[in-house]
Amino acid sequence: MSNTQPMHPPLATLDDDAWEDLLNFIEEKRVIPIIGPELLKVETETGPRLLYDWMAEKLAARLNVDPAQLPQPYTLNDVVCWFLSARGRREEAYTRLRSILREANFAPPLALRQLAQITDFDLFITTTFDPLLEQAVNAERFNGAQSSEVIAYAPNRVADLSVEREQLQRPCIYHLLGRISASPTYVISDEDTLEFVCALQSEHLTPEKLFHELEHNHLLLIGSNFSNWLARLFLRMAKRRRLSDPRDVGEVLADNHSGNDERLMSFLQQVSVRTRIYSGAEQFVDEMHRRWLARPRRVAPPAGATGEPTATARSPYERKLAAIVFTDVVGYSARMQRDESATLGLVRTDFERMRAASAPRGGEVFNTMGDGMLLGFPSAVEAVAFALQMQAEFAARRAKLPSEQALEHRVGIHLGDVIRQAEGGVAGDGVNIAARLQTKAPPGGICISQTVYNTVSGKVPMQALHIGPESFKNITEPISIYHIAPEGGPALTRHP
Question: Percent of the chain scored above 90 by pLDDT?
Fold first, then answer.
């Protein structure tokens, strides 16, 4: 007869030491939040509700499904299964749901905005299909401009991280179970979940860069609606090894149901000892956000200083992500030799025009350098639209005036970090790359990086010509470059 002692369920909270460890890992960018539907509490016509519950009700009405015939409380899966059993067309459920969500136009919930404010998070994974997380990140970090990178997985369209995580230049939101669409490429039923999970484990359908990050980082599963066995399966899939094997990273399950599941809690206590439980998804985000804000930001001591770094409320450097526009006058030196005064007058006029045109798009002039202007925009879309507008204006002016009375400009655009120093200067790889890109533009032309092209493609009317990767001095990796011009203009051709 066994003398084993009864198992005591782990505490469904975190103590101060556990919080301190977690916040240290967050600051080192070794933590990935995985967002679930329990965080999606939205303001509806009947008051605050979970988005998925509200959508189930609306979808049932759109598909003429009788709620009285469904299990109570019913879910999206219940609505879809009943609809299909009544010989409904599968595609109709997805397109109706897309219309429902688009018409609702909900504001991002507080919990998502709090997560977005934790700027040490650079990679977010969501198991939901709605756009609320990306809207929260864009609102909190980019004043509403669509500047975050959004990637969606589907079994028939494998999408991985565009670069290794340490090379991310802007926050990335990855929809692991698909993103809202008129096509059946996202999860709204248990059958969909099964197909996605099987595909994600398939040798040829796994997003390898993403799963490398899941395997080697601490994970926060916040607001998940995973069932007992799906939670176990997801953890095993993410860690790519037996959960009882020793590992250096752990997980936190912060939701409203796992702590009450005795079988799951017992399994984790016996098998996955690095997994912690916290009861309450919104409460977890609120406490993490509060503790993160309360931590002093630290900076390294000046060169040659001794002792430990000291806490400070403000760094002498301000780092921000921006769409960087670098302009340069074609033939400036030759013009100056011919007529210095006239050339300076033309440059001043063009700079004043660019400054005025950039302001309504949120642009800021960082610097002017003789014949060059450096601007920053909170959105790559606005930066490209600005450059296209300016080049079109300048081209129209040149068509009416003699060449000596009108300038041509080259423009380069890149999306990257700008470091603003206390004394007012700006620096950073983003600035350097934008400056290099303009050298590849033809007179009166615009060259953009692959990062900018990926962001604005389909959002700005333009034509683009890929002119290949180029290597630049002091830039580690080759830069893939596109030459762009207004849509409907003369077809682009390669220039010498």
Answer: 63
Selection from 371, 367, 301 nearest residue 335 by Cα: 371
Query: Alpha carbon of 379 to those of 46, 133, 287, 322: distances in Å?
Result: 35, 18, 31, 7
> How far is 265 from 257, CA to CA, in rounded Å?
11
Tell me the whole-structure pTM to 2 decimals: 0.61
Asked if 295 contacts 120 with a C-beta cutoff of 8 angstroms, the reply is no
CATH 3.30.70.1230 intervals, the chain = 317-486
The DSSP symbol for 375 reads E
Cis peptide, bond prior to residue 73, ω within 30 of zero: yes
Cα–Cα separations (whole angstroms), residue 414 to 21, 69, 144: 36, 55, 19
* Cβ count within 10 A of residue 20: 13
DSSP 65: -
> 205 by DSSP, 3-state: which?
coil
In CATH, the number for domain 16-40+109-294 is 3.40.50
Instruction: Please write the tens of the pLDDT for every residue from 191-205.
Output: 999 999 999 988 789
CA–CA dist 345, 127 (Å, integer) = 57
Instruction: State residue 477's pLDDT score.
Output: 77
**267 CB-near residues (< 8 Å, 6+ apart):** 232
Residue spans in the chain of domains classed CATH 3.40.50: 16-40+109-294
Can you name the residues that pair with 47 across neighbouring β-strands? 44
Determine whether domain 317-486 maps to CATH 3.30.70.60.
no
Buried b (16+ CB within 10 A) or exposed e, 90-106: eeebbebbbebbeeeeb
Cα–Cα distances in angstroms (integers) from residue 86 to residues 80, 81, 495, in the given order:
10, 9, 61
SS3 141: helix
Residue 172 confidence (pLDDT) above 80: yes
Residue 14, number of CB atoms within 10 A of its CB: 20
d(C-alpha 317, C-alpha 241), whole Å? 42
SS3 381: helix
| High-pLDDT (> 70) share of the chain, % | 91
Instruction: Write the pLDDT tens digit of every residue in 217-269.
Output: 999 999 999 999 999 999 999 998 899 998 889 999 999 998 888 999 899 88
CA distance 419 to 247: 37
pLDDT at 33: 97
- Residue ranges of alpha helices (H) inside 252-374 are 262-271, 281-294, 332-338, 340-358
